[in-house]
Every structure is written in C-alpha cells, then in structure tokens.
Amino acid sequence: MEIQNIISELKYKAVRSSGAGGQNVNKVSSKVVLTFDLQNSQVLSDEEKLLLATNLQNRLTADLVLILNCDEDRSQLKNKEIVTKRFLDIIKKGLHVSKERKPTKIPKSVIRKRIKDKKSLSETKQNRRKPDF
User: Fold this and answer.
1) What tens digit of pLDDT does each residue of 28-42 get?
2) Rounded distance, CA 70 to CA 28, Å?
3) 46-55 and 76-95 helices cross at what angle (nearest 10)?
4) What is the four-CA torsion angle of 16, 20, 24, 27, rounded to 10 degrees?
5) CA 45 to chain centre
6) pLDDT in tens, 83-132
7) Does a structural domain hold residue 126?
8) Model's pTM, two decimal places?
C-alpha cells in the first residue's frame, strides 16, 4: 500500500459548516468531505479490497464508498489535513490482520483439583443424609 497513490485517489469537497459560528459560517466553506471509492480503487489489490470491505463494513455505503467529514477547524486546509490523517488511520486499521487465537491447554493439576473438590463436596453431602437402616 503506497500512501501517496491512495491519497491521489481521494476526492475532497468543501461544504459550509453547520451549527453556531456567527456570520462566518454563512460565507466560508470550511467543512471538508472526503470520499474514497473502494471498489474502483486502482492502488489496492483485490485481497486488500476484500479485507477492507469486511473490516469497514459499518463505515462504508452500499456502493462501497467511504465518506468522512471534518469541521473541527475554521481553516479548510487544516480540516483537509485532519480528515486525510483520519482516513489513513482507518485504512491502516482496516488492513491489519489479527493473529488467530490458540486455545490454551488446561493444566492437569487444575483438573485434579476440580475432581478432588467434587469428591469432597459429594462426601460432605453424603454425610448429611439420614442413615439407611
């Protein structure tokens, strides 16, 4: 995965921010919307696309497009940097393959202790019963 090639496939769009902020909000488009079309990406291999589609299925649209917004700063350039960094983090986490868990073996001493405790409890309950004449 080459970062520069992936960044070249991103599409940015400047939009007016919502919410409070006075008159500046009405005239400045500082919010940045990033879109990345996973299905039509030329940089990623088919295996990487499949891995990202499964790991990021909650974040992708039905057309396998990732959409990210950023309106944290008043500067459009700063918002573009923030959303790009966020995108790269998401892609790196999506491409990470976790190791398969190996089940640990139960130690013999633990098994012996459990059986011993069961026997002692059984004997205790046996002694509480009424005698059979």
Assistant:
1) 788 899 999 988 888
2) 14
3) 100
4) 30
5) 20
6) 999 999 999 999 888 899 999 999 999 999 999 999 999 999 999 998 88
7) no
8) 0.69
Domains in the chain, number? 1
Query: With contact defined as beta carbons under 8 Å apart, do 38 and 67 qualify?
Result: no
Here the CATH number for the domain that contains residue 59 is 3.30.160.20
Token pair in block for residue 102: 């190996």
Chain position carrying tokens 């998401």: 90
Q: Which residues contact 35 (CB under 8 A, 6 or more apart)?
A: 10, 11, 13, 65, 66, 67
Note down the domain range covering 81: 3-95
Mean residue pLDDT of the chain comes to 89
Q: CA 46 from chain center: how many Å?
A: 20
CA–CA distance from 123 to each of 112, 115, 116, 130 (Å)? 17, 12, 11, 13
Residue 119 maps to a domain: no
| The two structure tokens encoding residue 39 | 């299905």
